[in-house]
Amino acid sequence: MPVLAATLGVLGGVGGAFVGGWVANEGQVKGFTREREAAMQDLRIEAYGNFIAIAEQVDGLYLAHAPGNRSPADNKEIDDALTRLLVAKARVGLVAQGPADSDVNEAAYAVVGELYKVRETASDDRDLRPYVAKANHFLIVARDEING
Prior knowledge:
- The chain has one domain (41-147).
- 84% of the residues lie in helices and 0% in strands.
- It contains 4 helices and no strands.
- It has helices at residues 2-64, 72-95, 103-120, 129-147.
- It is rod-shaped, with a radius of gyration of 27 Å.
- The termini are far apart.
- 18% of the residues are buried.
């Protein structure tokens, strides 16, 4: 009888250790998952904010340098900003949730497209309202994705 009691005690101890370890591991996995989700959200916020900030910089350069009065240095400054915008757009694509044709990616492509259209416009009566509308749409869908 004492052997049976000892055996049951050992089996109970091993079983308890197994269950306790399993529960602890599950809690740790959930904790790591929450941390990763929070880190990805931080990356999204940074990438989306950086993208729209560079887009606004390009917009400001267009307003500051009229097409008929641009120097080669002005054109280089605009081209450099457009290059930074493309890099920022690529980063948006890397951190956006969902497929490549998600709302955030589509909105970012639309912003880039509008700014390149303005780049090709040679007159001083450029209309930046389509860019502003697309930038506002990007902000809305980015905010929805981050909060959502």
